[in-house]
Amino acid sequence: MDGISLKEFFEPSSVAVVGASADPNKIGHAILRNMVEAGYAGKLFAVNPRIPEVLGIKTYSSVEELPEPIDLAIVVLPAELVLSVIRECSRKKVKAAVIISGGFREVGEKGKELEKALLKTVRETGMRVIGPNCQGINNPRLGLRATFGGLAKSPGPIGMISQSGTLGAAIQCWADREGVGISKCVNLGNNIDVNETDLLQYLKDDKDTKVIVLYIEGVADGRSFINVASEVSRIKPVVALKGGTTKASLKAVASHTSSLAGNMEIFEAAFRKAGIMRANSLEELYDVAKAFAFLPLPEGPGVLIIESTGGAGILASDMCEKLGLKLPEPDENARNKLKQVLSGFCTFSNPFDLASEAFTPDRFKLVIEENMRNDAFHAFITIFGDPIPDAAEQIRKVVQKTTKPVLVSYLGGGEVESREAARMQALGIPVFPTPDRAVVALSCLVKYSEYLRRRIAYDIVPMLSIHDGFVDHTN
Q1: Within this chain, domains 3-209 and 297-429 share the same CATH topology
Q2: Is the sign of the CA dihedral 43, 46, 51, 54 positive or negative?
Q3: 177, 228 in Cβ contact below 8 A?
Q4: Is the pLDDT of residue 274 over 60?
Q5: What is the pLDDT of residues 403-450, one digit of tens each?
Q6: CA-CA distance, 262 to 216, in Å (whole number)?
Q7: How far apart are CA 62 and CA 68, in angstroms?
Q8: Domain 3-209 carries which CATH code?
Q9: Which CATH number fits domain 297-429: 3.100.10.10, 3.10.180.10, 3.40.50.261, 1.10.10.10?
Q10: What's the chain's average pLDDT?
Q11: How far apart are CA 197 and CA 347, in angstroms?
Q12: Residue 244 predicted with pLDDT over 90
């Protein structure tokens, strides 16, 4: 389906929570409370035939009793009641529904039959549906916190598509804690209708989304997914974490959302074809997303590491070599100029160890300034070890002077580290807790930059010829 048809999910003018509850321990209460506390910008309705109001909101006995048309229904009811509610929504001309309820194919044969009936009903009505068995959706910009899990309260540049509610919630919590924010987050669950391909298409055109991240276990239509991802990756980066890469985890995938994950080698080849950057862990997924959201793309693999602690510099160097990043030496002119200012305790090579000079943080800025015109350096990694105040201000000044990415790792600095890292994040300068995580994020920027240059040079839209490894799991 066209991505435009998903607008009602993320920009509804009216929302009804079907199964709203007065019990604070119920999901139907948590979702309605999240919407109220977020100050949802549209009209909010509650449906529950047993009570007159919830959280000060009048309740209605059914969807059909609602006094006006509804764009989006959030359904939080026992699985056996969902089909009749979807039919009600259709008669009321509700355009879209998020089915939070579990109890479908993930629970066994009885649930599979119920899900088949639900899918048949959805197709008959023409409604668009996310779920079932999901944690919901979030658009912080509109206060649309239609979810019960951890969620981002601040709008930001990262769009999240997840087949796991908890993993999607984890990314949201990290983004919120660091002030990075989320543009949209959707948890797919059993994705009987709206799937990851539909959402890629939608987020491609979403002006609030700068980078798209996915947690996927399987895809519904491999050919369509790769063709759409190839189109999307021309416009904005796509980063994916694939669950179900071992025999043991494939069993867990089958019992999670009952999806079929397919062969990992097929997925890796498909990701390369489509320009999808693959993450190897949840932390890496977030780190790479953060880097894409705020940093310019490097024009090559050359990196200058400036650090205050030899051990961290060594770890960064090791990771650079493992990932194919280059560590050129500063040219003689830059070294001579810096030797006139810096003490002989510094190491005037790459990594550039500032030693005790690092406690005067403008030294980091000075080293970058003297090397930023060197074409061998395409990016800079600064590593602040120990409590070094005023680091944020110095990095801010140097970032304004170069179009090359400047990545920051800050560790071992206690309260000073916390303050300075928060200041940098507020300035749109991503901070990574360890040197190797900064290097991994940079390597993905380099790979994506190389991918775009190849695409521009050859004007090729990759077409997947090995799609047979993907399995349709919607039926």
Answers
A1: yes
A2: negative
A3: no
A4: yes
A5: 999 999 999 999 999 999 999 999 999 999 999 999 999 999 999 999
A6: 11
A7: 12
A8: 3.40.50.720
A9: 3.40.50.261
A10: 91
A11: 50
A12: no
How big, in percent rounded to 5, are the helix, strand and coil portions of the chain?
A: 45, 20, 35
In single-letter form, the type of residue at position 420 comes to E
What span, in angstroms and rounded, lies between the C-alpha atoms of 288 and 294? 10
C-alpha to C-alpha distance for 331 and 337, rounded to whole angstroms: 10
Q: What pLDDT is stored for residue 422 in this prediction? A: 95
Q: Work out the number of other CB atoms within 10 angstroms of the CB of residue 100.
A: 29
What is the pLDDT confidence band of residue 260, given thresholds at 50, 70 and 90? very low
pLDDT bin (cut points 50, 70, 90) of residue 471 is very low
Look up residue 229 and give its DSSP letter. Answer: H
Six-digit token string for 431: 């901070």
Sorted by where each begins, the domain ranges of the chain are: 3-209, 297-429
**What is the average per-residue pLDDT within 125-138?**
95
DSSP states of 322-358: HHT-B-PPPPHHHHHHHHTTS-TTSB-SSSEE-GGGG
Q: 75: helix, coil or strand?
A: strand
How far is the C-alpha of 360 from the C-alpha of 194, rounded, in Å? 54
Helix-then-strand count for the chain, H and E: 16, 19
Six-digit token string for 343: 């003490």
Main-chain phi, psi angles of 161, to 5 degrees = -120, 125
